[in-house]
Amino acid sequence: MNLKSGRIQGFERYSQFESVKEFNTHVEMWLAVKKQEFSKGELIGLKRLVRFSVKVPGVCNVKIGTLLKAINEEYQGNGISRSTFKRMLGKAKDLGILTIYETERKNGSQTSNLYCFNRFPQSEPPKAEKLNHPKETNNLLKTNHQKNTKRNESPIELDHTFVSDKVPQTFVQLVKYFFTDAKTIEEYWHMVQIAAFRFDCHQHKEDVLAIAINSFKQLIRKLKSTKTVAKPVAFFYGILTNKLKELYLAQLPEGRNELQPLRYVLGTGEVMYYDWLHTVS
């Protein structure tokens, strides 16, 4: 799809975000789960693209040369190559982080691309009927035969023994009593990773694990006492963010408080402040 080049304000309809705060929150979520897919140089390029994408939240049409020049100046001559930046773009596109549109001048010649950041996909909440109703493991040979003969059959549901090694066993052993399938258990831990990254607590693994376990117990208490929890995963995430925010504030250096936002310096030299502590719902 080729678009006509123009001022960035002309591309506002391509933004998926209501504000810079919302945009940055979604970027944090993407990085929490996809950061390991990028090399150090590629991450530098991605983060610089983010900083150039705040005038219209999540949208940028800056030239690659301009981005590379800004990176080179920031790192005092030790920037990244054009090929590294393009590899980053390819990965970000394949992962669903970016949508890239080609733009052209009035004479038809190609100019800088339009980079549009996508929203982090919302997690599907586990179905209510799964609570306290573990499914028995099906006979694999029988299931495979049914899959071959009935294409509309649901895929095999893996139990807690198939959960990724990245999820702490302490957490698995608790969650499995209420949500037995591996995908759901991993989804809850996925929320823990996002919240921990958001509040810069991911290095405090023991504290984060303890808070995650306590938050999940609070979720189960809520589910047992009421039927008004429409989205258990979202409710769990809300409990987590409140508790991790307390942990974050408790570890701030003396003299700093939650009213001090993060400082972003844009490629144009403009300074923008992002008060992400107040985006917690």
Describe the structure.
The chain is elongated, with a radius of gyration of 22 Å. A hairpin with a 5-residue loop joins strand 5 and strand 6. A 4-stranded mixed beta sheet has the order 1-3-4-2, with helices on one face. A two-stranded antiparallel sheet has the order 5-6. It has 281 residues and is α+β, with helices and mostly antiparallel strands. It has 9 helices and 6 strands, in the order E-H-H-E-H-H-E-E-H-H-H-H-H-E-E. The chain has helices at 20-34, 40-51, 64-74, 82-95, 140-149, 169-175, 182-198, 205-225, 232-250; strands at residues 2-4, 59-60, 98-104, 114-117, 262-265, 271-274. It has 2 domains: 2-117, Orthogonal Bundle (Arc Repressor Mutant, subunit A); 128-250, no CATH class. The model is unreliable at 123-151 and 258-281 (pLDDT under 50). The protein is 45% helix and 9% strand.
What's the gist of this structure?
The chain is α+β, with helices and mostly antiparallel strands and 281 residues long. It has helices at residues 20-34, 40-51, 64-74, 82-95, 140-149, 169-175, 182-198, 205-225, 232-250, and strands at residues 2-4, 59-60, 98-104, 114-117, 262-265, 271-274. It is elongated.
Overview features:
2 domains, alpha+beta, 9 helices, Arc Repressor Mutant, subunit A, Helix-turn-helix domain-containing protein, disordered C terminus, 4-stranded mixed beta sheet, two-stranded antiparallel ribbon, 281 residues
